[in-house]
Structure formats: C-alpha cells, structure tokens
Design a protein that fits this description.
The structure holds two protein chains of two kinds.
Chain A lengths: L2 E3 L4 E5 L4 E3 L2 E3 L5 E7 L5 E7 L5 E3 L5 E5 L4 E6 L8 E8 L10 E3 L3 E6 L1
Parallel strand pairs in A: 2-12
Antiparallel strand pairs in A: 1-4, 3-9, 5-6, 5-10, 7-8, 8-9, 10-11, 10-12
Chain B lengths: L4 E3 L2 E4 L5 E6 L6 E7 L6 E7 L2 E5 L6 E5 L5 E5 L8 E8 L5 E2 L3 E5 L1
Parallel strand pairs in B: 2-11
Antiparallel strand pairs in B: 1-3, 3-8, 4-5, 4-9, 5-6, 7-8, 9-10, 9-11
The chains are: A mainly beta, B mainly beta.
Amino acid sequence: AQSVTQPDIHITVSEGASLELRCNYSYGATPYLFWYVQSPGQGLQLLLKYFSGDTLVQGIKGFEAEFKRSQSSFNLRKPSVHWSDAAEYFCAVGGDPYGGSQGNLIFGKGTKLSVKP
Amino acid sequence: ETGVTQSPTHLIKTRGQQVTLRCSSQSGHNTVSWYQQALGQGPQFIFQYYREEENGRGNFPPRFSGLQFPNYSSELNVNALELDDSALYLCASSLFETQYFGPGTRLLVL
C-alpha cells in the first residue's frame, strides 16, 4: 500500500539550532517527493520537491532534503531554525502523472514544529 | 502566494444540507485536485480534474462530486452533509507534477 510516515508528531527546537524532520514512504513506482509547510489556519506552501537527479535538493527558506532510496526516506533539514519556522510540516509522495498514475498526492500526518526563544 | 483562490473562507452548515466550495486555479494550470484535511491530520485526496474530466478519485463516497469549468476553475459539491465532513477543504492547481495549494475553506457541520 502507498503511504507516508512522519514518525514525529511534535518537535521542539531552540532558535538557531539545527532541525531534521523525518519522512519515510512506501510507493510502488518511482516516487515524486514533496515537503509542504502549513501555518495555522492556512493552506500548504511548497518548500521543495524531488523528482530525479541529485538526491540533495534545496528549497525555499533555507530548507533542504535528502532522498535515500535504500531507506525509502526523504528527510527535511535546516541548519539554523528561526522563530518564524514554527508551523506544521507535511511530507507527500506522488507518482508520475504522465506515467499512468493519477498524480494525486499521499500525505503524512504532519510534524508540528515549535521553536523556543 | 500561489495564485490559487478559494471561496468561501469559512462555512457553517447543518447535517443533511448541501454545500458548494469554489476554487480558481493559478493562471495557466489545467488540473485541479481537491483534498480534505481533518483536524490534526494530513490532507486526503478527494478527486482530480484535468481539462474538465475527472482524472482520479480517492476513497470518498459519491455524495462528494465536482466540476471543472472551461477556465479551469472548479467546484466541490458535498450532499447530505455529515458531522465528519467538518474539515479544511483544500484545492490545488497544477500544470505538471507540482501542485500549488489555495488557502482552503473551513467547513463546520453542526
């Protein structure tokens, strides 16, 4: 079955500390992987995406993620967290919409990030 | 800002009623997907429209239906509302693989 697991429901880090949010996926075909961020009461903003090529991808706001096929993981990292990064983060997997799948996204349950001053 | 807009922003309905939610795609995008996000959960795929045709559906009953118009805007209709339909409804538009989300419509069913 296709699924995304985000093992950490809630993470608290101090401002300026590094951050890693975990994401594991199960997907039968070549996955397209995404990280989105959601502020309270808001929609989802795309942070970064991986389709192919270099397994380390850079996104907006200083975030990066590394695709590890052998571990079925796509963890999100940031070297120094800012107070404005406090939000909920969602990992999502989708298929190639031109390769026979329907292109819908499967989301994890999210990780809520709190930032201590 | 993604350029995807949704209306209304909030809505309160009673059980058994019908509701229509609207979404305007980002300019140039021909595909719209709808998701339901219950409190404390990740979004769940409802269905997708590509050039006015349904292009895939998630595990939602037929009382969830949709339309896409020639300008690629879209509607989500829910009939016979149930309490569990209370959620944030998100639409996303896309041209290729990346989906861009609107701010959502928060629906409360009493």
